[in-house]
Amino acid sequence: MVLNASLVDLPALPALEPDWQRRVRADRQLLFDIHHAVGGPFHVVYPEQFADNLRSFQKTLAGHRVRGQVYYGKKANKAGCWLPIIADLDGAVDVASEPELVHALANGIRGRDIGVTGAAKTDGLLRLAARHDCVVAIDALDELDRVAAIARNAGSVRILLRTLPPNAPHSRFGLSATDLDTAIALCARLRPRVELIGFSFHLDGYAVAPRAELAFDLIRLCARVKAQGLPLTTLSIGGGFACRYLGDDDWNAFVTHQRDDWFHAGKRFEKFYPYAQAPTGADMLEAILTTAFEGHTLANHLRDNDIQLFIEPGRALLIDAGCTVFPVLGYKQNADYGITAVHGLSMSVSEQWKGSEFLPDPILVPRNLDPAAEPIATCVGGASCMEYDVLTWRKVPLPQRPGHGDLLLYPNTAGYQMDKNESEFHQLPLPPKVVITPQEDRFQWRLDK
Q: For residue 229, what is the DSSP state?
């Protein structure tokens, strides 16, 4: 879709909107009532969509008769509303800090359903994990030594050994092949204080084949280690499950014809998230499980070797489960396109702080519709005094000129956008998270705890 603007032909990148968000926008007064209550920008989160996403992964595992667990990568969003759903659906949570672990426990997640990952962990985190029977992913030999020492008093610890991916030799995460052999031998001596249950890895990117291939290699490693007397039962393939935000035609047209003059001040970006890709979510898990090796699918090899599969999606559980709303403070015309200023900071759209741009079009929710309005092109700036505080560098098309008191909605921000880099710069409070739940023919809302 292309809109003729005064400067250039600007591409529109309309987000693939979930039904609940369209219904929220249709009830225009709801968003304005929330803004009246909170006074500034806010995030909207929709737990029912999260529950559907979690069930889809669980259903895929069950459909292949693969034992396993879906760990929500908690770093992707700090809201508490996801956690009771995980508890009710017998899911699990992946954490990397003491506050994250305590937050999960406080919302009903059992310790045995919590995985502790990340780089070198504090003794406090390891002790808490041991006391609550969490699974700990060991990233280095000295970390294994510390776990063994803590286990003397805190109780036995279930661990995974995180492997350094062969195609990422310079990653700072994971045990090299030599260290992995050393760690396996050490685990044999540390039983029963330290219980090695399997291996884990995490890959960058969103490709199916590398995940399936490394998983198969580690299944064979599990078989060899089992023969040495260590009863390994588990393989974790991490996260990185692909997500889709845009339609193929819109995304392909943007990528093919991208020009510097589509962006405010000729801003350039090295790369963007692949906003249209396939397979995504549980379909990507399906593709991994059905990849064939030696005449059998990966799912067959998991079952035949009695190995359960752990996965750690973050963004893929939050896709379509939230959006962010900024009140419009003003608009001014800058040459042949406009600059819209909003109440809020670009730190609430974290892609901007990773040297990239969040590309799905923001959606104008005007307080008053203007039937005679002409479409305009605008970038979007934050409320700070910093020149680089820009939420949207791209000149995006809007159906009418935004004005003070309107709202600008950024769709699909729940995963890694809405709270990853937020701070109280200028002493501005962090945008609250507003939980939306359906109630008969309307929505109710409350603040997230």
A: T
